[in-house]
Design goal:
The structure is a homodimer of 240-residue chains. Chain A is mainly α. Chain A has a single domain (2-237), classed as Phosphate transport system protein phou homolog 2, domain 2 (Methane Monooxygenase Hydroxylase, Chain G, domain 1, Up-down Bundle). Chain A contains seven helices and no strands. The first copy, chain A, has helices at residues 2-41, 44-75, 79-112, 123-145, 148-178, 183-215, 228-237. In chain A, helix 1 packs antiparallel against helix 2, helix 2 packs antiparallel against helix 3 and helix 4 (123-145) packs parallel to helix 6 (183-215). The longest helix of chain A is centred in the first third of the chain and has 40 residues, at 2-41. Chains A and B meet through helix 2, helix 3, helix 5, helix 6 and helix 7 of A and helix 2, helix 3, helix 5, helix 6 and helix 7 of B. Chains A, B: InterPro entries: PhoU, PhoU-like_sf, PhoU_dom. Chains A, B: One of its GO terms (cellular component) is cytoplasm. Chains A, B: Keywords: Cytoplasm, Phosphate transport, Transport.
């Protein structure tokens, strides 16, 4: 009975850690969606209100870490349990960054303010954001269900986001050349496009830790040579 | 004697972890320096050669994590030792990102290629990079020496980097408006400026974990309201 009690208490503590990560995931997803919507709709009020959401996500990240250290110190877990805790901490760190990026997108929406670029400027950016949202949603799903197939699919999807970024870069550069008055707003949008691309990078980092948790292999970085800059070089070489 | 032997073995394992982090720090510092130099000098060959350096840094990050999990599983450390290991893992993750950013700066140098902007375009960016290098160097020093005063100084220095970015943003926007043929190269430089600013953000993340290791307080995020976008809003409001 005593042993059973201990195991149960440990399981509950472990679940406190993973539940926090899942809660973070849900909040981060909502924040990213809302920030992109506020940017596209030019809704400055909504964008301003999103900034405080990020603080709550930061607090959850700190809670995950605190709970993880607590569990390790008290329960001295090994093998699969230790991997579970480790991946939770790394995933929380990535989610926290996605929260930061979303907050920064909201702040760029405020910066853009009434100096909005003409309609059509954000078409590629919007498609790109839809894809990034899907990557983020899928990887959180993969974490919740320990679904390594879905995690692999997220890893493989990242190159598509790089292609979107490259298309977005060329679209915005073209607008800047056509109308110099749009340069400042397009520069902000270029930055937002980069943030969206980075949300995708964090989704792949998370996918790697989902795989680590399931399979026990330490992620050693994605295959090199498929960086965003390589996609840009390919596309710009074709003539922007 | 047995206990003494165990303690010694544990200390050695712990040192394997922290030594790897210190080695990563030295390599990352060199890579960042070299990438910025290659960009400013327009040295495409040198920039191309830097890409492989980053793979070695990624491998070290994986080694830190592997060694950390190994030590936790075998030795079941608590309190200060556990903090030591935890901060090593988080710092290694930040250094790995700085390595990625440096590699991406090198790749943008290749993209810029012979389509270089006219002299003077990168003056603010160069000053900014010098400051970021100092932040990175100081925080690695603070980690090696467990120097919380230096770590605090790095935390306080980050706002200066945001101010540099804002100045750089305005300088590049001005060049773009003056000469539309410079738009593509200046867009790449804007992106490099953002990468340099992010190197600074990682330096502050590392500073927080140096403080965590020394003082035992989980970092709860920097004081909010001092984001890059806030500095931009202040400066652009004044009229770019």
């Amino acid at each position: 009975m005593e042993r059973e009690h201990l195991v149960k208490a440990f399981d509950e503590e472990l679940r406190t850690v993973t539940d926090r990560v899942v809660e973070m995931g849900a909040r981060v997803e909502r924040l990213f969606d809302a920030a992109v919507d506020a940017l596209v709709d030019g809704d400055i009020n909504r964008a301003s209100n999103l900034v405080i959401e990020d603080a709550q996500i930061d607090a959850l990240d700190a809670e995950v870490e605190e709970a993880a250290i607590h569990v390790i110190a008290r329960r001295q877990p090994v093998a699969a349990d230790l991997r579970e805790i480790f991946s939770a901490v790394r995933i929380a760190a990535d989610l926290e960054r996605v929260g930061d990026l979303s907050k920064n997108i909201a702040k760029r929406a405020v910066l853009l303010g009434h100096d909005r670029p003409k309609p059509g400027t954000t078409t590629v950016l919007e498609d790109m954001a839809v894809f990034a949202k899907k990557q983020l949603h899928d990887v959180i799903d993969a974490y919740i269900n320990g679904d390594s197939v879905k995690a692999e699919a997220v890893l493989n999807g990242d190159v598509e986001l790089d292609t979107y970024y490259s298309a977005c870069f060329r679209q915005l550069i073209t607008y800047m050349m056509e109308d110099t008055r749009s340069i400042t707003s397009c520069a902000h949008l270029l930055h937002v496009a980069k943030s969206v691309e980075r949300v995708g990078d964090h989704a792949t980092n998370i996918a790697e830790y989902v795989l680590f948790r399931v399979k026990g292999e330490i992620p050693r970085g994605r295959p090199k040579g498929a960086d965003l800059e390589d996609v840009l070089a390919r596309d710009l070489g074709k003539g922007a």
